[in-house]
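Throughout our pipeline, every protein is held as a single compact record rather than as scattered files. The record that follows is passed on verbatim for readers who wish to inspect the format:
___
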Amino acid sequence: MSTQNPQATLQQASVIDIVTFGYKAGLKSIGPITKLILPIILMYAISTTCVYTISNELKAGVQPGPIHWALLIGMGILSVISWAGYVYLSYPIARYVRDAYWNETAENLYSYLIPRRSLLGCWGIGLLWAMMAMPVGLVGIIGLLLLIVPGVAVFSYYYSMYSLLIAGYLSDPDRGVFGTISDIFALLKGNFWRTVALGVMTWLIYACMSGALIGLQAGLEMLQEFSPSLTRNLWFPLAYGTLTGVICWFSMAVGHGTVLFVMYRYLFDLRARAQVAAPIDMATYQGRSNSSTGNG
């Protein structure tokens, strides 16, 4: 990332400025994040291509043989590995974004793949938020059915909170999971609608950017329905698998990475608003990429 004044990212800002900062920083960091996730993306694309090809052959009436079953089992295992890697890689991406926010990324990019003590805390936050998914989803659906705005507000707030908690925890892992949750909820008092607006704007930009890719994938699926013979050509499963891999890459590199940049900026906006009379000490948050000074 280009050099920036870290002190400027500790000041109050409008929702538009926060989202703009996050997307600019996220797009500048696509290269390093792509290097971190590329092996998993390739495995996911290969397994999808193979499974899609075999499925088309079976639909065309080809009798499954030992090779088909061996490939299906092998690709199933590869899919599980790539899925597990997809879940795990959200952690090194989050750590990289935290350090890139301060312009102090580790010299060895792949060191972010090595788990640190903060991994358990991130998993703990993820587990707590997963447990909240069903009740929040129910409330959100009811809100959408009764009045659209309450449902959108619930989903947007929930969407923002997870990434904000991850950003808050990794900015200072010594506070622990419950200390971070307490800190974040205290900061969010009086900022409900700003958080909702931030979540809606962040999601809408991502949806518009990813819409073209999802539209292409839907087009290929429609083409399969209208012209099954065309899909038996080698180019079709290769195109479908490649596009699936690109969508997976986009969701991680642009979706997860960019949202975290937005939330790091929002985190320090909230802290600046809460500590107007007491400037934030940058030393508390910097130096996390140094193994001798940080545990995250």
